[in-house]
Queue: 3 jobs
Job 1
Amino acid sequence: MICCIYPREGFSISSKKTVKNVPCVFCGCLCDDIALEVENNRIVKNINGCSLSKSKFLNHLEDRLLGPAVRINGILVEVSLEKAVAHAAEALTSARRPLIYGLSSTENDTHQEAYYLAELLGGVVDNTSSVCHGTSMIGSQESGDPLGSLAEVRHRADLVVYWGSNPQFAHPRHISRYIRQPGEYMQNPKKDRKIWVFDVRSTATSRIADEFFQIEPGTDLEVISVIRALVRGHEMDIDRVGGLAIEDLAKISEAMKSVRYGVFFYGLGLTQSKGQHRNVDAAIRLIQDLNSFTKWVMIPMRGHFNVAGANETSTWQTGYPFAVDYSRGYPRYQPGEYSAVDLIRRRETDVLLNVAADPVAHFPRDALEHLKRIPIINLDPKRNVTSLIAEVNIPTAIAGIECDGAAVRMDGLPLYLRKIVEPPEGIIPDRDVLKLIIARLRMVTKR
Ligand code: SF4
C-alpha cells in the first residue's frame, strides 16, 4: 500500500536533487557508494545499488504503518502517539519479565535507548544475532577474533574462501565490489585472485567460483578440524571426511599455507549447522594456525545492515554482545538462557517490545504460540507479520532513509547513515519513540 501523504506541505513541487555516497541500509555490506535521485521528497532512482538495494530505497513508502494503533477488544484502533506510548509504558511496567528484541535493522542511537530501557525495567535485551551469528560471538569469545577489513581484502587477498555463505544471493555486490575489483597489490583479480566455495549444495556463488568443495551436511567441524590437522603437519589414517578425500584436503591445506593473503568469509551454513559455535571456534583456530605460515583473516557475512552494530553497541554498553539480562540490576549474559527464542519458548517473557524486526515471521512455532498470548509492542516502519498480532503498533522512520544515525559494516567499520527524505507526517525515529516511552515510564514509576 502506498502512503499518500506526499508531497508534504511546504515542500517545493520542483524540488530535485542527487544525493551521493549514501550507505545502503539493506545488508551487512553497507555499500556506501549509492547515489539517489530525489524528486519532491521521493526517491526516484537508485544508482549503483543491487536489486535488493533498489527495492529497499524505491519502495520505502510501500506497506507502511501510517499511525500509532492500540488493540481494543481485539481490533487495532488508531490512537495518538501519546496514547500509544502510555499504553506501551503501562504494559512494560506491569510485566514481570519484559523482553526487548530486534535492533539489527535500525541505527546505533536506538540501541542506546533500548539498553537504557532494559536496565530501567530490569528486563532482557537481545538482538537478532541470537538466531544468526551469535554463535560467531561465542566462538570468538573462546578463541579470539582474527577479523580483517573489506578494504584490505580488496587490496591484498589472493585467495577468498566462502564457507556456508552464498553472497551472490544474499549480498549481491560483495563479490563485484570487493573481490572482482583491482586493488593496490592485486591488479588483475579475475586472474590472480581465486574464489573457493565450501557448501553443502551448489549455489549461485559456487557456480562462479574457481573451486567448489561440496561437503556433507553437518560435517563442517570435522572437515575444518582435518584441514587444521593437515596444516599442522599431522598424518591422517582415514580416507575421507565430510565427503572429501584426504588427498584433496591435503592439497587444500597446502594451498591455504602458500597464498600471500587469504580471507575466510563465513555464513549461517557454518554458524547454524550442527556444531554451531564449535564450528566457528574450529575455523578461528584454523585461521590462527595458518597465520604461522602466511596472512589470513576471517569475516562473518552479516545479514541485516546493522546486526554487527547491535553486537558492538551491546558490548560497549552492557559488556556482552547479545542475550543480556538486567533482572538483578546489572547485566548478565547467558545465550540459551536469556536469548529471545529460549525465553519465549520457556514462556518466561510476559511482554515483548520489538524494535525493527519481525520475530513472529521468523521464530519457531512453539515460540510463536507463546507470542500470540502476550502483549507485543511493535516499533517498525512497515507492516509485517508481527504488526498483525501486536497489541501496540508505533510506526517509525526508516533509519538511513528518513533519519540519520550510525551503523557498523560486517567488518566492524562504522558508517554514518544519511537522512535522504522526510518521513511521513507525524512519524519519528524509533530512538525518539523509545525516549518517549522512557520518559513516560520514569514519570509513572518516579525512577
Ligand atoms: S550488496 Fe547489500 S549493501 Fe550493497 S547495495 Fe546490495 S543490498 Fe545494499
Job 2
Amino acid sequence: MEIGGLQKLTLIDYPRKIACTVFLTGCNFLCPWCYAREFVLPEEIKKQPKISEKEFFQFLKERKGLLEGVVLCGGEPTIHHKLPTFIKKIKKMNYLVKLDTNGSNPKMMGKLISEKLIDYVAMDVKLPKERYSQVFSKNAKIKDIEESIKILKKGKVDYEFRTTIVPTIHKKEDIIKIVRWIKPAKRYFLQNFRPEKTIDPFFETIKPYPESYLLEIQKIIAPFFEACQVR
Ligand code: SF4
C-alpha cells in the first residue's frame, strides 16, 4: 500500500474515538473542489514523501493503548485491491477502523463489512443522483453509488453520509434532492467547503457559504435522519 501521509492524532476524524488518519494515494474521481490533491493527482503524489508500511505498523505498535482507531482516507482507499490485507493487519493489533469513501466500490465495501474489517464508514454523497454523470463523466457509475448507499443502510456497520457543500456546485435544492435519495438514514452531515489548494484552482477563489445558510438547510432536512448536523 502506498501511504502518502499520516496524521498521528485526530480527535475529530473518528466519531468519539482518539485516532490517527492514514492517507492512501490515488483516487478514481477528480472532484474539481477536492483539497487533497497531493493524494489524488499523479504528479503531486510523486512529490510526496512516502511512509512505508513497516514504519506505519511500527507507529501503531508504539501507540497501543493511546490510540483507539485508524481512519483510512485518501484519495480513495477502496481502489486498492490490497486494502483488505492491509486492514487485517491493523485489526490484528486491535484497532478500530473507519473507512472514508466516495462510495464507488460497493464490492470492496461489502467485502470489508462482511469480513468485519471496518467499524465505521463515512460515505460522501457528492451530488444529486442525476448530476453525478454531469460532473464526473464516466468515472462515477451511479449504480455503484446507489449500491453503496443500500449496503450502508442495511446497518451492518455504523455509518454516516456526508456532503461537502460548495458554492457554484451546490444550491439548497441539490441538498434537498440528495436527501430525497438517501433518506431515511442514520446520520447525515453537511460540511462546509474550504477553499484550500483545490484540484481546479478556480475553487481556491470562491467563498464558502455562510454557516447560517447551511443551518437553514439542516433545519429542513434534520427530521429525515437520526442525526443531522453542520460541521
Ligand atoms: S474529494 Fe475525495 S473523491 Fe473527490 S477527488 Fe478528492 S479524494 Fe477523490
Job 3
Amino acid sequence: MNLLIQGHSFRYEMERLAMMFFPMEKINWYIDEAPEGEAYVLTRLEQNDNSINLTAGLVDDIHRPDSIVLEYVDEKETELAMGRLLYRALARDTGITPPWGILTGIRPVKLFREQMSGAENAEKVFHDEFLVSPAKTELAKRTEVYERAILEQNRPMDFSLYVSIPFCPTRCHYCSFVSHGIEQARKLMPQYLETLHKELMDTAAIAKELGLRLTTVYFGGGTPTTLSHQELDLLMGWVERYFDLSHLQEYTVEAGRPDTITKEKLQVIRSHGAGRISVNPQTFHDNVLQNIGRGHTVQQFMDSYSIARAMDFDCINIDLIAGLPGDDLKGFCHSVDSAIALDPENITLHTLSIKRAAGLGSADVHTLQKEYSMAVDMVDYGYRALDKSGYHPYYLYRQRNTAGNLENTGFAKEGKDGRYNVYIMAETQTILAAGAGAATKAVHPITGEVMRVYNHKYPYEYIGRYDELRERKQQLHDFFKYK
Ligand code: SF4
C-alpha cells in the first residue's frame, strides 16, 4: 500500500498504523505525490493562521479520506489526532478494528502505568485518546497490577543476568531470533563457550566493582538445552563461580524445544539451582508442528514434560501459539485445554507474526488473512479458559504484524510470576547480558536513564571481535558513576 505524507513529520507512526490495516502489504511512503492511478493512504496536515486542518484515510475509486479542523494544539496532540482520524477512516473502509487502537508500541502495560502515575485516569485515556478496546484496556489494567507487585520489590542496584545460547536443533519456520542450527554451528561451540567464559568473568567483575546485586538469572536463546549436559554443567558452573548468587530470587533456563531435553540435562540444570524451565509444545497437533518445521512431535513434548515434572522444578512454563498455519479454532481450544490439563505453573499465549508467517510458504494471502482473523477467537478462548483455571496475566508485549494485531501474554498461577519477564518489559532493572545476540540494558539507579550495549549478533563475530565488545562494556563504569 502507498502512504502519502503531506505537511507533517509523523511518518513513522502513520506507517505503523497503516501496517495494522494492510498486514500483508509492504508500505511504500511518498512525500507530496503518490504514484498515479494507484490506491493510497493519505495523511495531510495544513497549517492555517489559527487552526490546523488534518486529512487522513484511504483514497481509491470508492473511498475518500476524512478531515477535521483543530484549534492550535502542540505537536504531540496533533500527532494523536491524526492517528485517531486515520484509524477511524481505515477501520471504516477496511472492516478491521485493531484492538489496541492507535497504540503501535510493544509495551502497552508500561504506557498504562505511566498514565496512572501522571494522575490521569489511565482507562479513560486508553479508551478515549488511544481508542483501545474495553477488553484490551481491562487486560492492560489487570496485568499492570501483577507487574507492579514485582517492580516494587526491585532495588536500585539490583540486576539480572541474561546468558544467550543462540543455537537450536533446527530452525522453526516462523523464528524471529538469530538462531543457528546446531549441526553447522557445532564446530564453533568450543570457541563460543570459551568466549562466553571470558564475558561472564568480565561481566561479573563489572557487577562487583559497581556494587550491583544479582537477583535473577535467565538462560535464553535459541535453546540453551541444545548444549550437551557436560556443556551445561560447565557453563552453569561458571555462573556460580563468578557471580554472587546469595541474593538470587529466580533462576530460569529455557528448555524450549522438547527434542533437546534429556533427563541428564534437566538434572544438571536443577543441580545448579535453576528452578524455572520452559518446555514448549506450541500446539498439541502433529500436523501443525510439521507445518512450522518444529522437528518434534506432541508425544516427544509429553515425554519431556513428564521427565521435567518428575523433578522438583518450582515452575514449568508452556508456550502456545495462536494463528499457526493448519490450525483452527477447535484445534487451538484443544491445545489450550491440553496445556491446562498438565497443570504447569506458567502458560504463555503467543500470536503468530504475519510477516514471519508469510515465510512459511503459503502463497495465498487471502487464506492467510482468514486464518489470522481466527486468532482473535483463539486468544479470547485461551484467556477465558486460563482465567477459569486460576491463571492470571502477569506480563505482556506486542510484536509488529501479529495475527489480529494481538499480543503475547504470560499467565501464571498465584505466586509463580516470572520476575525476569517483567523486568525486561518494564525496563526499570539493569540487565547485564552475555553471549551472541544479547543486549545489555543498564538502568541508572538515580536518573533512570537507560544505556544499551549490543553484543555481536552472530557467533563467529562474537568470537572474533570479543575484545571490541569488552571495551564497550567498560563504558558501564562511567554510566553508573555519572549522576
Ligand atoms: S526453538 Fe525458538 S529460537 Fe529456536 S528456531 Fe524455534 S522459534 Fe527460533
